[in-house]
Design brief:
The chain has 271 residues and is of the alpha+beta class. The protein is built from 4 helices and 5 strands, in the order ααβββββαα. Helix 3 packs parallel to helix 4.
Length: 271
């Protein structure tokens, strides 16, 4: 036990640290990224729905000019650090916050399909090949007279979401490091107050097994280990007294036998 118990505790601590970092780097990383995606998607969809109910609807109802909507979308996109589109159901781009769309030039999002979200309100990817990097995209319908007139699409680069996820993940790493430090403190307390006294008791037991009954257990505590050490010390004292009594008995018997023999020897030499 002396050779393996403490080693097992150390090994368990190292395995706990290793699996903890693996869990944070894999499971928690994925969960954090998914959480950030859903959180940002909810926020962006609320904005898309608000744009759909105001500027986009007014645009299709011809109550505000295209230039006014373009200016508003550019300001809003700059504030949100996103890119905002307004599209027709066919995928034709009407408003693009990153650059003004020429009404005379038809810009089509090839393969546009409003049902690509499959019942969800956001997608991730290059949005039908429109971007060179992955983006988080939300699409809200523009309705008028109970008909879908178009869609508002807001795009946010996944790099922004990954940056937020990494910030949260760093907090998880810090929490894991704090947990490991606390675990190390517990291990050190165990070493000082449990393992070292236990080693002293084991050493005393080995000395008693070798016949050294005068060895004293270097443990003086008022707990179970102290009680065990005191019991071993009492047992050793009892055995030592028994051995001393046995030696005295043998010495007395030897003296009693030796005295008559000495007298008989003296008489025989005299004769």
């Amino acid at each position: 036990m002396r050779k393996t118990l403490y080693f097992r505790f150390i090994l368990g601590y190292l395995l706990f640290a290793l699996f903890g970092f693996i869990a944070v780097a894999t499971i928690f990383s994925r969960m954090t990224t998914e959480y950030c995606i859903r959180d940002r998607a909810r926020m962006l969809y609320r904005e898309a729905a608000r744009i759909s109910d105001t500027y986009a609807s007014q645009l299709y109802e011809s109550t505000v000019p295209l230039e006014t909507v373009q200016t508003q979308m550019e300001a809003l996109a700059a504030y949100m650090d996103t890119e905002i589109w307004i599209l027709n159901p066919s995928g034709r781009l009407v408003v693009n916050s990153s650059q003004a769309v020429d009404p005379e030039t038809e810009v089509i999002v090839e393969g546009f399909n409003s049902t690509v979200t499959a019942g969800n309100y956001y997608t991730t990817g290059n949005y039908f090949g429109s971007f060179d990097e992955d983006v988080l995209s939300v699409t809200a319908p523009i309705t008028s007279d109970f008909k879908i007139q178009g869609y508002v699409a807001i795009h946010l680069p996944m790099a922004e979401i990954n940056r937020d996820a990494n910030s949260l993940l760093n907090i998880s790493y810090m929490e894991l490091v704090i947990l490991l430090i606390l675990s190390l403190v517990i291990l050190l307390i165990f070493t000082q107050y449990v393992y070292r006294p236990l080693r002293g008791i084991i050493t005393a037991a080995e000395q008693y097994a070798l016949g050294n009954m005068h060895y004293r257990v270097p443990v003086e505590r008022e707990d179970e280990l102290g009680y065990l050490a005191a019991s071993l010390g009492y047992m050793a004292d009892t055995i030592a007294r028994s051995e001393d009594d046995q030696k005295k008995f043998i010495a007395n018997v030897s003296h009693d036998f030796r005295s008559p023999l000495t007298s008989m020897r003296g008489f025989l030499e005299a004769m």
